[in-house]
Amino acid sequence: MHVKTAVVILNWNGKSLMAKWLGLVVENTLTDTDGDVEVVVADNGSTDGSLEFVREHYPDTVRCIDLQHNHGFAEGYNQALSQVDADYVVLLNSDVEVTPGWLDVLIDYLDNHPEVVACQPKIRSMNQRDCFEHAGAAGGFMDALGYPFCRGRIVNTVEKDHGQYDEVTAVFWATGACLCIRLADYRDVGGLDARFFAHMEEIDLCWRLRSRGMRIVCVPQSCVYHLGGGTLTKSNPQKTYLNFRNNLMMLYKNLPEDRLIVVFAIRAMLDYISAFVFLCTGKVSDAVAVLRARSDFWKMRERLTIQRLENRQAARQTVIPEMYKGSIVLGYYLLGKRRFSDYKIN
Is the same domain home to 23 and 119? Predict the structure, then answer.
C-alpha cells in the first residue's frame, strides 16, 4: 500500500529501546501528523523477542518486516526500504525520542522545497537534554581531509543548545539517526553502501547526493533526542575499526581525482598518529583496529573502483560548499577552535 511517508526503524536486539520509545514514535507520528503515514519496524534477526514485543503491543499501528539475519545498518535499511512504497522515508534509530509535530515540520519543508532531497531535525542528547547530540547535532559538515563534524559538535566538544543554530541551513550530510529522504532519490543513487555495514554510510550517501547537485538541510524547528551508542559504545574497538575503514572507503569513492593522492597521503600520517596515541593511552585494541582498518581498506580498494568511476561520472559539482576547506584536526587540537562558529564554511 502506498503512503506519503514511512518512518522505518531498523532494530537489532533492541527490545528494551522499543519498550521505552516506540510508543512515543506511534503517538507523535500517527496522531500528530496530517495522516498518510506508516510506522515500520524492520528487524535484523533479533534474538531478544523484539518482534514479538512489537506485534503484541502495536498490532494495528506498526508494520513489522522480518529480515531474518543481521545485515548491518546499511544493507538492513536497503532491504527494508525495498519493501516500502512511499514518497518519503525516515530512517529513525530505535534509541530516538521524538517530540510532538517532529515529522510534519520535516515533510512540510520537503513539500515546499523540491530541490531539497533530504533533511534532518535538530538532534539533542537524551542524557544532557540541553546539549546537542554527538552524531548529528544541528547538521553535518566535512573538512578537506574527510573528518566529519556538526553544527554544535567539533571532535569531542558538544555545545549546549542556546538556539544559536535554529535557522534552516544547507549541510553536507544528515545523520542516519533521523534521516528524512525522498525514496526515489535514495534508490536512484544506489541507497546505502552495504559494504560499510555500519558507521559513515549515511555520509557516503549524502556525498553522492550532494555531488549530483541535490541539496540537504537541517530543519531545527523539528527536534528529537538521541541516546546514542545503543549498538556499539563509543569506546568499542569495532566502532573504531568501522569508522577508520569506512572513512577511507568514503574518501576513495567520492574524492575528485586532483585531491585523491594528497588527501590519502596526509590521512595515512594522521591515522598512524591516531594509532600511536591509542597505544600510548593503553587502548591497544583501538590501536590495532586502526591498523586493521587501513589494511582491510587497501584489500577492498580495487572492488570500490567501479563505484568511484560511477560517482565521478555522475557528479555535477566537485566543489561542495558545505565542505570546510581547512582541517578541523589542526583547528581543534592546535588552534583551540572548539565551536562550529569558530570555522568559516564556504
Answer: yes
pTM above 0.90, yes or no: yes
Q: Which three cell numbers stand for residue 336?
A: 583551540
Structural domain range at position 276? 237-318
Domain shared by 37 and 145, yes or no = yes
Task: Read off the CATH number of the domain in which 23 is found.
Answer: 3.90.550.10
Same domain, 183 and 71: yes
Scanning the chain, the segments in alpha helix (DSSP H) are 15-30, 50-57, 72-81, 102-112, 183-188, 201-211, 237-254, 257-280, 284-314, 328-333
Residue pLDDT tens, the chain, 346 long: 899 999 999 999 999 999 999 999 999 998 766 679 999 999 999 999 999 999 999 999 999 999 999 999 999 999 999 999 999 999 999 999 999 999 999 999 999 999 999 999 999 999 999 999 999 999 999 999 999 999 999 999 999 999 999 999 999 999 999 999 999 999 999 999 999 998 999 999 999 999 999 999 999 999 999 998 544 445 689 999 999 999 999 999 999 999 999 999 999 999 999 999 999 999 999 999 999 999 999 999 999 999 999 999 999 988 899 999 999 999 999 999 999 999 998 7
Q: Same domain, yes or no, for 118 and 83? A: yes
The answer to whether residue 191 is domain-embedded is yes
Count how many domains the chain has. 2
